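Re: weekly structure request thread

Next one in the queue (599 aa):
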Amino acid sequence: MKFWRSRTTLALVLTSAALIVPCGAWYIVGSREVRRAVDENEAPLRESANKTARELAERLQTRLQTLLESESNRPFYQYQALYHDPRGASEGPSVTPSPLAQGPTDPLIRAYFQVDPSGRVTLPTLPEAGLEGEDVSMIATQRLLQSELQGAAHDSACVAFLQTGTWPQPSPGQSPSVLRGSTSPSLSLKSTPPPSWPRQHFETMELDAWIQNAQAARIYSVIKSGDNSAFASEELRRKEGQQRVTIGVGEFLWCSLPISNAVHLAALRNVTTPAGVLVQGFVISNDGVADTIKNPASPARFTPGARAGSYVAAARLDITGWYIVVSAAKEFAAADAQARDNWIRFFQRFWAGVGAASIAGLCVVALVWNTERLARQRSQFAASAAHELRTPLTGLRMYSEMLADGSGDPRRARDYANRLAEEATRLGRVVSNVLEFTRLERGALQVRPERGDLAAAVRECVDHQRPALEAAGARVEVSIPDQFPEVRFDKDALAQIILNLVDNAEKYTRSARDREIDVALAANGDSVTLSVRDYGPGVPADVRAKIFRPFARGHHEDAPAGLGLGLALVKALAQAHGGRVGCANAPGGGALFTVVLPR
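Done, posted below.
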């Protein structure tokens, strides 16, 4: 309970609570208001970006849906450079270049390709048999694309699923490919395997037409040589009596393929033939998509994944699983700048308010602490004053009664009278210090310096105190140069300074072996220094910092009784002269007090 008896501690706790609660509430409410203002500023921008993303997604989805429907009607045999048209009227072996041999005509399509049962990738723009008028540079570009598609098809879970009907498990660290068909469910490596083979439609064709399509490149070479009789269908001879074959063509599925260090969207389908399963498809051109979703106000891009953020809006294309991502960084830049300004202004006001409130709270706590300190000092002062007054009063009463009653030795009457004088002097010194401190606190302490002989005044003051000091067992030595300049000083104030310094030295050397007190004067340019040194225990460092404050005294156990006002008056009187005081431990031991006065 002693802890809570301290008014300062209680004031600190209450003030802290009074600061923390309202400041915490202010921060919560203020930060919410700032966030609400930021959200209100950003909401229209975010909604605009989302609307743009949805519109672009709808536009691209319609375009891709139309493209997918168109490509779904394309015959499977047109995915090779040369093919035999089963609906043609020509007799005997015949092949013709595929409509895809010259490359895609739709800007959204980058390339067509086919994966045969062995996993080899072919492009309709790269015939196995040479054609007239081939562009060498175009062929080189197509072969590079073929190589990239070969690697993508080899690693594609989508291609493996369409060829084998088995959904492969991803290897550690592999990103899943996302598939989406126009009517099929969304597929990914993270989901369970698809429950069934993609829906197919079946068509029949003449066996001879199938064989000519399967051997189109060979037939073209034979026809080009002019020897049609050289072509003989071994498969036809092995399958005599079988005149038609059934071909199953599946629906297109969307998947992601890494091509040219970028991810491309591709549409794939499987074709079931007597020779095995073919995978056919086309790759969507990223440049074509960019032209389709071009938006000068807010840049947009087509990507297989979207990550939410403050500056982006994303819309998903249901048929592909890909996203249109719209960047609104430019629009958000101004909003962000305003948001930063709002936060800065809020924090400036908040911390300024907290700082002002904290300073006010600390002032309250400091006021309570100072009040409590003064109360303790006054209580201590009252006790010390009672002790200081009771001791000389006891001596005065005792010796005066002895003289009045004649109870003492008549031969020592003179000694008794001297003791009465000493006790009266001591009592006068206590009363004088109290009166001077009272004037100091009222601001009424004044000095009237006049130019005079400071050396003579110091000697006179020391000689006046010498009998009492020697009676107490101390001796005083004075060291003053023979030629000492005149100084402006107040004689009464000087006497008060020397009296308190010498009395302080006598008190704190009562237990010392050497009780000598050295009083010295020295001239230093524009100032003079009065010093009083003793050979006692010295002054601890922590005490030196506050020894000239009122009521401050040495805190060791054998410290003599006193009011703690003498050194405070020394400092006040020195400063009233325009001087200063100092305290240090002298070399060789003891305390050294100095008073510097201007000349």
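Confidence is low (pLDDT under 50) at residues 173-195, 232-240. The chain has 14 helices and 21 strands.
Next request, please.
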